Each structure stands twice: as C-alpha cells, then as structure tokens.
Fold this protein.
Amino acid sequence: MPLTPALARLVAAVEGALDGLPVDGAASPADQRRICEAVAPVLGGLLHEPDAVPAAARESLAGAAIGNLLYADPGGRFHVLAVVFPEGTSSGVHHHGCWGVIGYLEGGDEETRYRASSDTGDRAELAESSRHVWHQGDVTFLLPPDEGWHRVRNPGPGPGVSIHVLCRTPADHPHRFWDRRSGAVLPFPFVEVAPGRWRAEVAGLPESG
C-alpha cells in the first residue's frame, strides 16, 4: 500500500539509523539500542497523526491477530507492520532475535517480559521480569538478547493496533516460540497468509497428552 507522509518519515528515519550497518541485521547490542533510540521519536510522532496508517491496515483477519505489512525495505534490512490484536487475543511467549521498536496506535496491550536463566536454542527456562500495560502513544523497544522474550495480550476493551518496526524481512525475522508445558523453543516464522498479511505460526508444537 502507498506510504502516507507519516510513514514516509518513519521509513526515512529507519534508513538513516541503519546507514553503514550490516544488511543482515547483525548489529552489535550498542548499535541496536542506537537504532531504536533514533527511530522511537519519529514513531512516537506518527502515533498522534490520525491519518498516518490506512484504515485497511487496522483490520484483523476474520477476528484473529494479524500483521498488515506497511513497508518492506528493498534491501531486506527492516519492515514495518501494523499488528492487530482483537480483544482477548494473545501472542504467546516468543523471542525476537534482533532489534524492534513498537508504538501503540489504538487501544493497548499488556506486555509481559521474560528473562532466560538458560536458552540452548531448542529449550529455555524463563521467568517473568516485568509486566506493563501500554496505551495509545506509548513506544517500547525489543533489544535481544536480554530483552527479546515477551508476550503481548490485549485485555480490551476493543482491538489493539500497534506499529512494529522490525529488523530484516517478515520472512527472515528471527522469531521463536516458547512452549510453557515442555520448555521447548520452537520456530515461530511469519507466514504470509494473504497478500501483505503476515501471521506468526508455531512449527512443531508438541501435542497435548
């Protein structure tokens, strides 16, 4: 979909923050924080512009959570999603393997962060480290390895819409899911389920006994 002026400013800010860094998103922790801090004020401004995001990008997928693609960098360095969580839906506990900036456009989310006491790649032990309810206009970061695990849930009322600026492409974004029952860590790739509409789907979730 075409970029609104506010989205064009956001894209330009991300491009500027990434200038000179590796294309594959393998920036140092210090660089990842610098990227997020550069992008956050521009994203924060976008959240207060009523026409910043097209109405179609604020819609769920038949009542289910979805990420509506607003922009994909031609070089594969980052992408921008409008993520819609209908009331009562949750992401499950998952991990982002590189930087992200999230701004809340409509409604809100309860975000729970986790710290890993161990993470072998295919198994992890996690403990809750914080819980916060975000509201319209708020901006937060994802900064792995220590700040990559989280869960979001929309307690309502109404849908929650947030703008996610994430490293790499949707298909290449490093994304893992934690199964609470078994402690298994599983692939959680973004899958394009309709044109421009991306959903995270767990691969290999153990069946309940």
In short: Helices lie at 5-18, 29-46.
